[in-house]
Design brief:
294 residues; eight-stranded mixed sheet; 33% helix; AB_hydrolase_sf; AB_hydrolase_fold; Alpha/beta hydrolase; hydrolase
Length: 294
């Protein structure tokens, strides 16, 4: 859920590893309408009779690469994955309706209806994407048969912001920008700071430079908790036990979900993991997701 768009130079991000580029090339790439541009979807795996498509929404200042360590395992478990770059991030155009999660609801609804028809999907949203998923299903509950929220903000249990990020776009050298990216990854995304170098830094640097939504505010409200009463499908939640969005307040999450969600099936706290739980502890994340999705 990064939000670091500031005026100034944006230098080239480090190239992603060859295997990540190959993974991207293995996807079927399709587009739906998003204002004057396109909403870009990446599709891995094949449809299976009786198994809904699994749609993944990434976090703020991200792209499909927020799930870079999960695609192969989920496809290997027999799931067909549909992963958009959310409006205003990655390769997708900005929504004509605004620059926060509520502006993404209708482009995503229209895209899912266009691509999947009347079939309900299984929907998983990470961080800002989890908040977006909640808003989408509150408005269109028929879209999904199951919802998994991962590290989602806006549950109304945190009295004040638990982290601060640093600006980086004004810095004039790749080295200076990378230092701030390392700081921000440690402040918000990763509990295990030894994971920052390498893939995490490369993915993050590539993603944040394509964030065109500088004034997102809904993540610091209780809008997800207020949306969940209208979500009729079963809901699961997965968080890292050291999620920087919540810190000590994470102990209140289960009761907040139970109070707001008509069909809440449980909260999994992944040990030794922070906010970007699916990157930091992929095996535990996959186990929790596959248990939820049955």
């Amino acid at each position: 859920m990064m939000n670091e768009l500031y005026p100034g130079p944006t230098l080239a991000a480090p190239a992603l590893p060859d295997w990540v580029q190959q993974l991207a090339q293995q996807a079927r790439r399709v587009s739906t309408s998003c204002g004057d541009g396109d909403l870009v979807w990446h599709v891995w795996g094949q449809p299976r009779e009786g198994v809904p498509p699994l749609v993944l929404f990434h976090g703020g200042s991200g792209s499909w690469t927020h799930f870079v360590r999960n695609i192969e395992a989920l496809v290997g478990a027999g799931r067909e994955l549909w992963v958009p770059d959310l409006p205003g991030f990655g390769d997708s155009a900005v929504s004509p309706l605004g620059g926060d999660a509520d502006a993404m609801v209708e482009p995503l609804y229209e895209g899912l209806r266009s691509l999947l028809g009347p079939r309900p999907c299984d929907l998983l949203g990470f961080s800002f994407g989890g908040m977006t998923a909640g808003l989408l299903l509150a408005a269109h509950p028929e879209l999904a048969s199951r919802l998994v929220l991962v590290g989602a903000p806006a549950m109304g249990v945190v009295p004040q912001r638990q982290f601060e990020l640093k600006a980086w776009r004004h810095l004039l050298t790749p080295e200076a920008q990378a230092d701030i990216h390392r700081y921000n990854l440690a402040a918000l995304m990763l509990h295990d700071t030894t994971l920052i170098e390498g893939l995490a830094l490369q993915v993050h640097a590539a993603n944040v430079r394509r964030d065109r939504l500088p004034r997102r505010r809904l993540a610091h409200t209780d809008i997800l908790a207020r949306s969940l009463p209208s979500v009729s499908c079963p809901v699961w939640a997965i968080y890292g036990e050291h999620d920087a969005l919540y810190k000590s307040w994470i102990t209140q999450l289960a009761s907040a979900f139970e109070a707001s969600t008509p069909d809440f099936r449980g909260l999994t706290l992944v040990p030794e993991a922070g906010h970007w739980v699916q990157f930091e502890r992929p095996e535990a994340f996959h186990s929790a997701v596959l248990a939820a999705l049955g």
